[in-house]
Amino acid sequence: MDIKGNFRNFLFTDWILIETQFVPEHLQSKETVFTIGNGYLGTRGSFEEGYSQGLPATFIHGVYDEVPVVYTELVNCPDWLPLVVSINGDRFRMDQGEILNYDRQLDLRQGLVVRSVRWRSPGGNTIDFEFQRFASLADQHILGQRLQLKPLNFDGLIEIQASINGYPENVGFNHWQELDQGKIAEGIWLQRRTRSSQIDIAMAARMRIFGVDASLQVTSAPGYPTLSTTFLAAAEQTVIVEKIVTIFTSREVETPILAAQNKLALAPDYPVLLKSHGQAWDNVWENSDIVIEGDSVAAFAVRYNLFQLLIAAPRHDDKVSIPAKTLSGFGYHGHIFWDTEIFILPFFIYTQPAIARNLINYRYHTLNGARRKAAHYGYAGAMFAWESAVTGDEVTPRWSLPSDFYGEDVRIWCRDREIHIGADIAYSTWYYWQATGDDQWMRDCGAEIILDTAIFWGSRVEFNPDLQQYEIREVIGADEYHEFVHNNAFTNRLVQWHLEKALLVYDWLSQNFPEHASEIETKLHLTVEERSHWQDIINNIWILHDATTELIEQFQGFWQLEDINLQDYEPRTRSIQAILGIEATNKRQVLKQPDVLMLLYLMRPSADFPYNPQALQTNWNYYAPRTDITYGSSLGPAIHSILAADLGNLTTAYELFMQAAMVDIQDSRGNTKDGIHGASAGGVWQTVVFGFGGIQFTKNGPVARPHLPRGWTRLQFQLHWRGQWHKFDLRQPGLEAREEFIEFRSQFMPSLDVKAVIFDLDGVLTDTAEYHYLGWQRLADEEGIPFNRQANEALRGVSRRASLMFILGDRKLQEAQIQEMMERKNRYYVESIQKISTKDLLPGAIALLDELRQLGIKTAIGSASKNATVVVDRLGIAGKVDAIADGYSVQRPKPAPDLFLYAAKQLQVPPAECVVIEDATAGIEAALAAGMWAVGLGPPARVGAAHLVLPNLVGVKWADIITELRALAL
Q1: HSE-up of residue 799 (Cα within 13 Å, Cβ side)
Q2: Could you count the other beta carbons within 10 Å of the beta carbon of residue 309?
Q3: Is the peptide bond before 610 cis (omega within 30 degrees of 0)?
Q4: Is the peptide bond before 314 cis (omega within 30 degrees of 0)?
Q5: Highest mean pLDDT: which of 253-262, 760-769, 862-871, 955-964?
Q6: HSE on the CB side for 333, CA within 13 Å?
Q7: Measuring CA to CA, which residue among 951, 779, 764 is closest to residue 865?
C-alpha cells in the first residue's frame, strides 16, 4: 500500500522510498537513509554534484586505519560519485538557481537510487536531470551511475565532468597517501594507500555519452582524475551519460590497480550491468523478503531495514563483520559490537546462512586478538573486545569528548567492564550450529570459540567463601547507565549458560571427532580440572533471583537505588542520562536498555532458566516502566516489543516495533546522520518473525504460534532450518484466503443522513487508466501475450492480481513468476505516474471536493490501486481527503465490500451513511454489498446497477446528488 504521512517528506510504495522535497537541514540524515551497498562497500546518499554541508563517504569492509593515539576507524574511501554539470557556465547545484521539481527514490527491490530534478539556472535556463546509481550485487567490484538530462527552454553549451575524488576525509582526518593516477584507453584511474595499515586501493572509471556527438578529454589534477566533455544541446534533446567505476583493494588482490583496469576494460554497458544487478537482488529477496498485508507503513519499513542489513553483509569475505552503524556513516568509527551477534545475525542465520557463517568466522579469525586482551588483563583464554576492527584487539576509545567545550572528558568503561560479549558470541555460535547442523564448521571453528571463551570465564569469576558461591564483580551489564556493578544477573546467567554449552560441545567433539578434541585440548591447555571447575561454577554461580516471586534483581544493590517515575520527565527529547547526568542516573533505578528483560529474551528460545510466563510477567511489570525505551538505546524497543507480544499486549508491542522500524526513516533519535542503527534493523526482523509470527524451533523444525497486530491481514516469510526451507503464510483468525465472493446487497435503502463520500480514484477524480493500460501492454508484449485496449476495459476497477490472471488466461505460472510480473507492471506504472500533477484532475473533481469540505462532510479515497496515495499527493488533493483505503488495506478486492467498509471505518462513519462514487462495475457492486449509496459515473451498461448514474462530475453539486437520492428513497 502506498501511504503519505508525517515522515520528513517521504512517500512509500511497496518497495520504493520517495523523497518529495529537498530540505537542507535534513541533508546528512538522508544521506544515511539513501545509502546503497553490496556487501563489499557502502556509499552514502550524497549528491553527485556535491553540497557544502554534505558528508559523502564510501566505506569498504576491512579497510581500517589509525587516527594516531586516539582510535582505529573504518576509512572513508575515495569518492566515486562526482558528476558535475554546467549549463552555459552555470554549475548545477542544489543551493543555487531554483529547484522547480524534486524527487529522489530508493528502490529496495533493485538496490537503485534515482534522483529527478527540474532546475532553473541563475541564467534562466531550465533543464531536467535524472541521476541513477547502484553498487552491483552481481559483481561487488563494479559501481554504476547514469545521468539523463534534457534542456527544456534553451539551446546551449553543456559541460559534464566525471571524476574520482582522492581526498576523502573522516571528519577532519585524511587517511590516504598519494600513490599514482593516470589515464587508460577506457578512461581514468587512481591509486591510494592508507597511512598506517598500508592498504592499497585502486579505482578506474569510464564515461560514455549517448544522444549527442561529443568527445572526451582527460584532465589529471592531483588526486582528482577527471573525464570531461562539452557539447551544444538543443531544447527537448535528451542526452544520457553513463559512468562505470571499478574498485579493488590489496585486501583482495595483490595488484589492485591492474585488477581495476582489467575489470573496467571487460565491463559491459550500463544497462547490462544494471540488469544483472537487479537479477542478483531478485535472488536475495526470494529468500529474505517479508510480506505484510494490511499495514503499508510496516510493510515498507520492514523491507527497508532488511535492505540495510543485506547491503552491509559480507558475501565473499569471512574476515570482516557488520559494524554497529553498518557501512553507512561515521558513527562508532566502523567498529563491531555485540550488535552483530545478538541483533543482526539471526536474520542471516535463518535466511542467508552462508553470510551468517562469514559473520561468525570473523570472530574465529580474531581469536588471537581476544587472547591478547585476556592476557593484558591477567586472565586466561579469549576475552573478546567490546569494540573490534581487523585483528580483534580492543579498539574502544578510552575517552569521549564532552559536548560542552569546558566539560570534563568522559571515561569509556565498556572496554574494561562490559565483558558479556564473550558469552554473546558463544550464544550466536551455538544457535548458528543448531539452525544449520554445520558440524564441520563447529568442529573446525565454533568449538574453539566456545571453549576458549569458557576458559576466560573460568579465570574471571571469583569465589566468595562467605556465600560459598561464585560471583562476577565490577562489570557493566546490558544496561549501560550503571557502569560499576557486581553480580549482574544478565552477565552471570549468560556465563552459566555459556559454560553449560561448553561442556556439551566438548563432549560432542570428544565423541565424534576425538582427534580434533585432543588437538584443542593441547592448543588451549584444556584440562579435566578446568572442565570440573566449569561445572562447579555452573552449580554455584550467584544469580539474584527470588524463586517465589520470580523477580530478578538486576545487580547486587539495585533495589537499594532511588526509584524513578519516568513519566515525571515527559515530554522530553533527550535520554534520562542527558537530563540527570551520569552520576545521578547511576544512583537511580532507571535502565538505558533491557537488562533482566534482555536475559529473559535470550533464554526464551528453549525456555531456559529463568524464562517462564510468570517470570516474564513479573519482571516486565517491574522493569519495563523503568527503562528509558524512547531515548536510552535503540537496541531496546525491538526486544520489548517481542516480550510484549509474548504477554499478549499487542498494542504496546506494535508501538515499540514501529519505534524500531522507523528510527532511521524518521530520524526519531536525531542521530541518523551517524549511520543506520544496525542492531535495531536486526531487531525489527526478530520482532516480526519471533514476536508477531511466534516462531519457535522444535526438533522437527520451526513452528508458528502467531499473534498478528491489529490490521495485519497477512504475514508471509520463510526460514532456513537444517538444510530445508520452511514457508509461513500467517493470517488473522477468520481472514483465511477465499477466492469466491458471496454478494450481499442490503434489502433496505441506506440512510439519507449522509456523513461521508468515498471516491474511487481512477476514472472519478483523475484518469490514470491510460498509465495502467500502458503498463499492462508493455508487460504483455514482453511476455508475448495478446492484449489490446478492448481487453483492457475488463480490468477497470479490478485488482492487480485479478487483472494479471485475466491477461494470463489459461497460462499456468508459479507464484514467484506471478509476483514478479505484478511487481514489474507496478514498476512501469509508478514510473509513468511520476509526472502527474493537478492538471490531471478530471473536470468537476476539485469543485465537489471543496464543496464537501465546506459542508463538513468527510471524504475518503477507496481505490484498488496500491499506488493511490502517490497519485493523490501528485494531484495536490491530499489535504482534501480524510482517509485513503487502497489495495493493501484489505485482503479481498472489489467487488467484495471490504475496501469501502475499511474506508468507512477509517472515517468513523457507519456504512449506511456513506455515498460511493465509482466508474467501474466491480466498484458499484462493492458499494451496494457494503450497504452504501452508489453513484456511478459512465455508461449505464457499465454502472447501471448504481442508485444514481451520471456521465461525469462536470457541474455536479452535492445538493443535486442528495436530492436525487432522496427522490429514489421516496
Answers
A1: 19
A2: 25
A3: yes
A4: no
A5: 253-262
A6: 18
A7: 764
The pairing of strands 239-249 and 701-704 is unpaired
**Amino acid making up residue 32:** T
Residue 800's pLDDT band, with cuts at 50, 70 and 90, is confident
Residue with cell 576458549: 452
Mean pLDDT score, 163-187:
94
Q: In the 8-state DSSP scheme, what is residue 445?
A: I
Cell of 362: 570473523
Instruction: Say how far apart CA 884 and CA 853 lie, in whole Å.
Output: 16
577 contacts: CB under 8 Å, gap ≥ 6: 481, 585, 592, 628, 632
What residue has cell string 532458566? Answer: 609
Tally of CA atoms within 13 A in the half-sphere of 970 that contains its CB: 6
Q: Are strands 724-731 and 399-400 parallel, antiparallel or unpaired?
A: unpaired
Helix (H, G, I), strand (E, B), or coil: what is residue 156? strand
CA dihedral (73, 74, 79, 81) positive or negative? negative
Residue 480 appears among annotated catalytic residues = yes
Are β-strands 58-67 and 98-107 bridged in parallel, bridged antiparallel, or unpaired? unpaired
Dist. CA 633–CA 338, nearest whole Å: 14
Percentage with pLDDT > 70 across the chain: 97
The answer to whether 746 touches 931, Cβ cutoff 8 Å, is: yes
The predicted structure's pLDDT at residue 618? 97
Tell me how far apart the alpha carbons of residues 339 and 238 are, in angstroms, rounded to a whole number: 47
What are the phi and psi torsion angles at 67 (to 5°)?
Answer: -95, 110
Q: Which of 489, 467, 478, 622 is nearest to 545 (CA)?
A: 489
pLDDT value at position 71? Answer: 87
CB 449 within 8 Å of CB 456:
no
> 644: how many CB neighbours lie within 10 A of its CB?
22
Strand partners, 105: 18, 114
The beta-strand segments (E) located in 365-431 are 399-400, 410-411
Verify cis geometry, omega within 30 degrees of 0, for the bond prior to 895.
yes
Residue 965, CB-side half-sphere exposure with 13 Å CA sphere: 25
Amino acid at 814: Q
What confidence tens digit (pLDDT) does each residue in 614-667 have? 999 999 999 999 999 999 999 999 999 999 999 999 999 999 999 999 999 999
Q: Would you call 963 exposed, middle or buried from its count of C-beta atoms within 10 A (0-12, 13-18, 19+)? A: exposed
Cell of 875: 494531484
- CB neighbour list of residue 621: distance below 8 Å, 6 or more residues apart: none
Order of strands, sheet of 756-759, starting from the edge strand that comes earlier in the sequence:
883-885, 858-862, 756-759, 914-918, 933-937, 948-950
User: What are the cell numbers at 937?
Assistant: 459515473
Close Cβ partners of 474 (under 8 Å, ≥ 6 residues apart) = 417, 484, 485, 486
Q: How many CB atoms lie within 10 A of CB 734?
A: 5
383-399: average pLDDT: 95
Q: Which residues contact 912 (CB under 8 A, 6 or more apart)?
A: 746, 750, 751, 931, 932
The CA–CA distances, whole Å, from 850 to 119, 282, 625, 838, 840 equal 32, 44, 47, 14, 17
DSSP string of 701-723, one letter each residue: EEEE---PPTT--EEEEEEEETT
In whole angstroms, what is the distance from residue 670 CA to residue 25 CA?
A: 12
Question: From CA 773, how far away is CA 769, in angstroms rounded?
Answer: 6
> Cα 161 vs. chain centroid, distance in angstroms?
33
235 within 8 A of 151, measured Cβ to Cβ: yes
How confident is residue 27, by pLDDT bands cut at 50, 70 and 90? very high
Three cell numbers at 293? 498485508
Q: Identify the residue whose cell numbers are 543555487.
A: 96
Query: Are 418 and 396 within 8 A, CB to CB?
Result: no
Task: Work out whether strand 98-107 and strand 112-120 pair parallel, antiparallel, or are unpaired.
Answer: antiparallel
Of 31, 49, 66, 480, catalytic? 480
348, 352, 324: which is closest to 338 by C-alpha? 324
